[in-house]
Amino acid sequence: MELYLDLVSPPCRAVYLFAEALKIPFEFKLVDLSAGQQYNEEFGRLSIVKKVPVLKDGSFVLTESTAILEYLVQKCSVADHWFPADLQQRARVNEYLSWQHLNLRSHCSKVFLLRTVYPFVMGSEVPKEKMDTAVEDMKLSLNMLEEKFLQNKPFILGNKISLADLVAMVEIMQ
């Protein structure tokens, strides 16, 4: 199995950390985003969406980090707490994975890009009001993570880590 990744990307880090932690054998294939390798012809034949992560398992190719994580859970028979068989527990993981794309991921990524890429590309700092708005949106998402999903529990499902927690962790790390 091959995983096409750039560890600067939180979704790639989630896939990588999961595979490493559970000792799932894979071949690491670096796709250097800063060099634009996701746009080269070879990678384009593998993934029409030109984004990482990508999993290649024989002739089967899968994109999107959460789909890859769920595939690895089911293919590799990992501990149930990662993606529970219980319908309601699994629904809670899926609820978070669905929510996070346009909330925590979007808002944390925006703050990261405004603080790191914007000054490099534009040659100046981000206007204060733009940064303040981005930080406020991120804080709202972090508060929602705490209030709705964690609710004073150590993990989203309670006492054991799940895919939802791993995906949340890499965004917060960024």
TrEMBL record:
Pfam families: GST_C, GST_N. Residues 86-174 form the GST C-terminal domain. Transmembrane segments: none annotated. The keyword Methyltransferase does not apply. The keyword Plastid does not apply. Keywords: Cytoplasm. Residues 1-80 form the GST N-terminal domain. It is found in: Cytoplasm. Belongs to the GST superfamily. This is Glutathione transferase. It comes from Ilyodon furcidens.
